[in-house]
Structure formats: C-alpha cells, structure tokens
Amino acid sequence: KMIYSESYQMLIEHENSEITILKEDINRSVYKVYILSNDKKKYSYIWQVEKVQIEGDLKNCWMTTSVSPPEFLGEVI
C-alpha cells in the first residue's frame, strides 16, 4: 500500500526515470532516482538498497531499506 501513498503515487505509470549512483559498495548502494510523472512533473528520491546479511531465505538478496520523501523539481512542458 505504500506505493499508493501521496509521497509515492507518482511512481505508478510514470513516463520516464533516470538513476544516478551516489554510493556503492559490496553490501549497500544508494541512488538518486529522477521520475517524470504521467502528469509531467519531475521528482527525485534517494533510494537505498542493502544486501541481507543474516541467515535465512533472504540471505544475499538485495532489499530496499530506505526511500526518501519525494523532492519536487518542477513541471516539464
């Protein structure tokens, strides 16, 4: 349900995206994600994923551990 919240609904059926690597190492990556929504507004997020280190079914899987609130960057004509 998080994806349908006000902060993330612009991700649904967005028109375009770009990803910039901010930091990467063997267990964690941080990206800046730029989104062009279907209503022609541009946003950015800081998105962090980490590799699961604990034993279990998800060990060595990459999981989202943090997503910032969107930063509105303006409208695109």
Would you write up a description of this structure?
With 77 residues, the chain is mainly beta. 0% of the residues lie in helices and 52% in strands. The protein has strands at 16-24, 28-36, 41-51, 62-67, 71-75. Strands 1, 2, 3, 4 and 5 form a five-stranded antiparallel sheet that branches. Strand 2 and strand 3 (41-51) form a beta hairpin. It is elongated.
Spatial shape: elongated
Secondary structure: number of strands: 5
Question: How much of the polypeptide forms β-strand, as a percent range?
Answer: over 45%
> What is the radius of gyration computed over CA atoms, rounded to a whole number of angstroms?
14 Å
Helix fraction, binned, reads under 10%
Oligomer: single chain
> Kindly, what is the distance between the CA atoms of the first and last residues, rounded to a whole number of angstroms?
30 Å
Structural class: mainly beta
Topology:
Blueprint: E1 16-24, E2 28-36, E3 41-51, E4 62-67, E5 71-75
Antiparallel strand pairs: 1-2, 2-3, 3-4, 3-5
Q: What tags apply to this protein structure?
A:
five-stranded antiparallel sheet, 77 residues, 5 strands, single chain, mainly beta
What is the structure about, briefly put?
The chain has about 80 residues and is an all-beta fold. It contains no helices and five strands.
